[in-house]
Amino acid sequence: MIRKNRVLPLDNTPQQAEDEIVATVVEDTVDVTNITETINFQIHKLAITLLNLEKSLPDLANKCINLNAEDHKVFYDFFKTHIEQTRHGKNTRECRFTDSDNAILTKVNRYEQSKSEENFITFANEITTTLFTIMKEATRSSGSFFVLDASYNDEEVIVFLKLDPKDGVQLDLDTLEINEIKNMLPESKDRVHKCAIIKKNYEANSTNLFVLDKQQKAGETSKFFMFNFLQAVAIPNNNIKTVALLNELYTKIEAKLPDMESNLINTAIDSEFNNGATIHIPDTVNNIYEKLISHDTDDREILIEEYKTNFVNDFTTKYKDYGLSLTIEREESKVLYNATNNQILFRYNKVLNNNEVTVRHDKSTDIYTITVTNKASIGFGQKIR
User: Fold this and answer.
1) Rounded mean pLDDT, 96-118
2) pLDDT, tens only, 269-314
3) Mean pLDDT (whole number) for 88-102
4) 3-state secondary structure (DSSP) of residue 48
5) How far does Cα 59 stand from its chain's mean position?
């Protein structure tokens, strides 16, 4: 008799939190529905280990798992989708190893010199032990760890994939009985927690790997995974440069002009940061101060030049590899205010800024006042959950 089973995830998450998570996933996840059909993807070898941080040692692999696309389509699609999301995801960082003697790269090269199943298991267990030791001091997040020797669009790669299993229930459609299933892997549409795709063909000072880490602040990669484990650094892209420059401008200009309203400073900065525009940082800083400093200010031109020079010197000292020109890459349709761990989250469309929505920051009391007008026309109100 063939049994028909339906597997449902166990989810005790309140509805409000669930909705917020879904919104974030839609924003950060790549649509791979059409892309995955054209990918040339092969898994040569696969090993699975467990990173249970409550134990003194990880659970290591004792065998190599061999999959092929025809006989193991579900498994193949699972890994293919996760890897595609890592390779092209919004939060993926292009990285390079700090040097050719990197410990991870050394282990990869040693395995490549003798590519037997036994040596692959040795390689996977060495990698797992290294990561486990670092994680014991840096995080409490246990999980399953997958090491793959694969080819992705004809490029030979090693893949490290860390996922957090969850529990679920299985419904037997014949008997209508339900059973609990432990350690279900997340669905392929769920976001990867940590993934590194390493190009076997090492090139000095070039992109050697792609890193995605969702257990971290937005736009960053957690230090222990990137620096301590992979011993790599992110190659600054336009998004990273844009975020860094905006943060420095808001901080430094507010410090220079402490009596000016924050919304005026924000507007002057924002007007220079159109998505897709190429800017030269000294010119941009000069333009912003030109808009903010009154024309009747004594020695106005000298002051603007001094502020601009100080900012550029500080920025190039702090971000030595960024250069002075970049193409703006940002989400410019939304305005977002939030507190630590999103205890408070306030987001609205930028077209409403200073019209239907006004935010004022009283620096003397450090109090923010949010005013929403035209309530009826925009349909503003509390959403009952």
Assistant:
1) 91
2) 989 998 899 999 999 999 999 999 999 999 999 999 999 999 999 9
3) 83
4) strand
5) 28
pLDDT (tens digit, 9 = 90+) per residue, 117-138?
999 999 999 999 999 999 988 8
Beta-carbon neighbour count of residue 16 at 10 Å? 10
CA distance 330 to 279: 13
* Number of C-beta neighbours around residue 254 at 10 A: 15
Three-state secondary structure readout of 100-130 = CCCHHHHHHHHHHHCCCHHHHHHHHHHHHHH
Nearest to 224 by CA among 185, 196, 183: 196
| Residues 6 or more apart whose Cβ sits within 8 Å of residue 350 | 332, 333, 334, 335
Q: Cβ of 237: how many Cβ atoms within 10 Å? A: 14
Find out whether 47 and 61 touch, Cβ atoms under 8 Å: yes
Cα 160 off chain centre by: 16
Domain boundary assignment for the chain: 5-235, 240-327, 334-378
> Which tokens sit at 176?
């209508």
- For residue 75, count CB atoms less than 10 angstroms from its CB and return exposed for 0-12, middle for 13-18, buried for 19 or more: middle
